Amino acid sequence: MVITTDTIKELRDMTGVSVMQCKKALEEAGGDIEKAKIILRKHSSATASKKADRALGAGIAAAYTHAGGSVAGVVVLACETDFVSKNTEFQKLAYDIAMHVAAMSPQFISRDDVKGEDIKAARDVFLKEVLNVPESSRTKAIEGKIDSYLREKVLLEQPFVKDATLSVGELLDGAVQKFGEKIQITRFERLSVK
């Protein structure tokens, strides 16, 4: 299939990734835009892992207040330079993540933030739930329930509220690829009247 500049432009508009990366992904996908988006997503996680050890020196604090003012989400999204932190797309990303925090009420940024006592408390609850499961499968059932529980509570693993096909972590990986810098959520807070 012939890859036209219109196809490249369409993929770039959807993803915000550079023209050359879009062209390479389309070539690899045989011109299929949906496959090219998946290829770009794979490349974004590889790009993010390469930049993981870079220092963060700039960022933005963004807040979202839900209609009616009863719930607010606040997030600090850090990056390497002021150039990126002042970019309107970066600021919109921070606002969208703050909206996600308000909507989904995460408790931890990553699994590294989960304390041992939190996992022990969850394990105790799930142990009671799997008493009717055969003993040979009980450990696997408990681990599956803990994994599911953590995916609900860990911000980077939650499905993004505006696009459930992406996790918040994948959204950040895409931003790293797009902006060419390390991007990280350093802090978040959810405030609620109730």
From TrEMBL:
Main location: cytoplasm
Signal peptide stretch: none
Keywords: Cytoplasm, Elongation factor, Protein biosynthesis
Single GO cellular component term: cytoplasm
Domain Translation elongation factor EFTs/EF1B dimerisation, residue spans: 59-192
SUPFAM superfamilies xrefs: Elongation factor Ts (EF-Ts), dimerisation domain, UBA-like
Functional description taken from the UniProt entry: Associates with the EF-Tu.GDP complex and induces the exchange of GDP to GTP. It remains bound to the aminoacyl-tRNA.EF-Tu.GTP complex up to the GTP hydrolysis stage on the ribosome.
Annotated family: Belongs to the EF-Ts family.
Name recorded for this polypeptide: Elongation factor Ts
Organism: Candidatus Kaiserbacteria bacterium RIFCSPLOWO2_01_FULL_50_24
Highest classification ranks of the organism: Bacteria, Candidatus Kaiseribacteriota
